[in-house]
Amino acid sequence: MAEMQGGRSLVVDAVTHRYPSGALAVENINLDIKGGEIIALLGPSGCGKTTLLRIIAGFIAQTQGRIIIGDDIVDALPPNKRAVGIVFQNYALFPHLTVSDNVGYGLAARGIDKATRQREAQRLLELVQLPTMSERLPRQLSGGQQQRVALARALAIKPSILLLDEPFAALDKNLRLDMQIEIKRLQRVSGITTLIVTHDQEEALSMADRVAVLSHGKLEQFGSPSDVYDRPQTLFVNTFVGSSNRMPGVVVSADRTAAKVRLDAGAEIIARPAGGTLSEGGRVTVCIRPEHLQFVGDETGFAGVVGMSLPLGATVVHEVTTADGFGVKVSQARIGETRALESGAAVRLAPLAPSLANAFPATL
Amino acid sequence: MGAAPATRDVTSYGMGLAAPLALFFLVFFVAPLLQLLWLSLHNDTAALHWGLGQYLHFLTDPFSLSVLGSTLLLGAEVTAVCLVLGFPIAWLYQRVGPKLQTIIILIVLLPLLTSVVVRTFAWIVILGRQGIINATLQSLGIIDTPLKLLYTQFGVVIALAQVQMPLMTLPLITALGRIDPNLDDASCSLGAGSWRTFFRVVLPLSLPGVIAGCTLTYAAAITAFITQSLIGGGQMLFMPMYLYQQASTLQNWPFASAISIIFLLAVLAVVSVFTTLGRLSRGYGGT
Ligand SMILES: Nc1ncnc2c1ncn2[C@@H]1O[C@H](COP(=O)(O)OP(=O)(O)OP(=O)(O)O)[C@@H](O)[C@H]1O
Ligand SMILES: [Mg+2]
User: Fold this and answer.
1) CA distance A202 to B280
2) Are A25 and A15 in contact (CB under 8 A)?
3) Which residues on chain B place their C-beta less than 8 Å from a C-beta of chain A?
4) Which atom of ligand 1 lies closest to the CA of A49?
């Protein structure tokens, strides 16, 4: 693997794209990606992930902004000159070519002779652990195997950037985990700068060095998985990444690091001002993750009534309705005989720690 | 869910449902064909003496062989023209918006909506000595004397190509539509230019359509009695007209029958060459 070049850096500089139909798919996106990083582009359906990927690959010319790979501005280069490897969601293997010819396709386009091509294809097939499949046709392979071939094919051209569009969406859960580990392993040995598009937040958090969260074509946050999960900068990120309870409230007092918020549900809690400083008396939305809420015995916290308890294996999730009528989820680790609470039981809830609640200025 | 009654095994439906069609086929196709075969195996016009004389006559007669040869050649030329002109149309169809697609389909189907006779007469108007082409070229001063377009091989090929074009374009449109558009992008991202992508990916994957289109166009072109005779005129003789003369004018039914059988076998041979080619080229683009 030593001959594989390390990844080059990728800069997405103020890229905006409006489709001819008028849809603004991507709006002023800035990403500064270092060579060798794995980046996840995370966002709900229709937020512009594929559009951004296709802009980087050169299939779409963006309306504004620049794409810089290494030291080169590549905007004028067609896709076949960009040396960007892509693995498509449906793999897009050439159905009439053998696995070996599929992997060697990019080398053939570079005028490399057949013997060298086959040797290289075989080496890559060993790398993706399919050494004996070279003479098969794609339709004679399972989904996971096809994906490995697609990966080998993309790696064969020694791309400076590897793009994967929803690479695991079509795989079942166990295979998905295998392939996630596999791709991460291959990425580590090859050092190729990799961009994975996904709408699966677990996938993004587990695979990527940094996660770019998109919503409606805008970049909401670009940071490490723990930044995104623990220190979300927007309400959208907080609720899209992981699950979160949203509770309305009013700011009692606030400084840069902490805010005292009076929840409409009837308690005063300390929360982290997540979207900048908060003004006293302003309405906020507080986000608390289900696993960061606990039942308390004393008069602290807010009151609620248990609706239902769902034992989900390692955790038990309780649905609690607060005094102001909001539904709140509480997740408890299942230690010993964690009891399933009776429906209708009156309880009191409080955050585990002040830093675990995030307060965002309420919109509207 | 469970097994709905509709998912009953097809083979469990009685073959009886196919009986009407089978009977029709038997009476109006197999029976005449057998009669044709029976007739062709007689040496005299009264069909009293058995023998292979008609076949021997055809196969040793340079004139008959040249008619067969020029008919098969005509089919090949028309098929080639249809393929070369039809492929870009089908390719374009897959790459334009829905509005243009409707227009293209309409243009492709238009020939099917008018009678062959009308279309052929239109070509006579276009190709004639005082026809549109000659008149235009003369008025532009490009030629002095009118070109001979009508009653030429060229004229027949062009007219037939226009008449048979839908038979080529429709299967091609279907075949190209089945190709995953991502394959284009994949090829491109792997460094291939558009020509390599076309010859290595698009063309091989559209082969089923190419073969279907060629077979249909070929079979239709060599049997197109009306267009061949009207545009070809008296000087050019192709198998359908030859057959017609022998049967209707000369009342030589056994020879006419032998001509049909030989023609039929020749067509079958060409068609099976097409299909074999198709089978040999892997990559039916199946799932
Ligand atoms: N060819 C196109 N023409 C016009 N609008 C388009 C086109 N492709 C996408 N869009 C629009 O641009 C927006 C972003 O689309 P995109 O395909 O990038 O989303 P995505 O994040 O990849 O979604 P998904 O997760 O569903 O794949 C959507 O609103 C979509 O409707
Ligand atoms: Mg997408």
Assistant:
1) 47
2) no
3) 180, 182-183, 185-193, 196, 200-201, 204-205, 281-287
4) 21
| Cβ atoms A122, A131 nearer than 8 A | yes
Cα separation values, A294 from A245, A267, A290, Å: 13, 14, 9
Interchain pair B189, A85: CB under 8 A? yes
Residue B71 in domain: yes
Q: Which residues are close to ligand 2, an ion, with C-beta < 5 A? A: A 50
Residue A282: CB within 6 Å of ligand 1? no
* Averaged pLDDT of chain B: 87
Examine residue B16 and state whether it is found in any structural domain, yes or no: no
The CATH number assigned to the domain holding B262 equals 1.10.3720.10
How far apart are the C-alpha atoms of A315 and A291, rounded to whole Å? 9
pLDDT value for B286: 38
pTM across the whole model: 0.80
Which residues of chain A, if any, have pLDDT below 70?
Answer: 1-6, 336-340, 364
Q: What is the ipTM of this complex?
A: 0.80
Determine the pLDDT at residue A338. 58
- What's the domain range around B71? 50-281
> CB distance B191–A109 less than 8 Å?
yes
Binned at pLDDT 50, 70 and 90, residue B284 comes out as: very low
Contact list in B for residue A139 (CB cut-off 8 A) is 286-287
Mutating to test ligand 1, I would choose from A12, A24, A49 the residue with most ligand atoms within 8 A of its C-beta, which is A49
Both tokens assigned to B74: 């005509």
Q: For each of the domains in chain A, give its residue range(s) and CATH number, in order of start.
A: 10-235 (3.40.50.300), 243-361 (2.40.50.140)
What is the C-alpha to C-alpha distance for residues A8 and B189, in angstroms, rounded to an integer? Answer: 17
Question: Are A95 and B286 in contact (CB < 8 Å)?
Answer: yes
Q: Indicate which atom in ligand 1 lies nearest the CA of residue A47.
A: 21
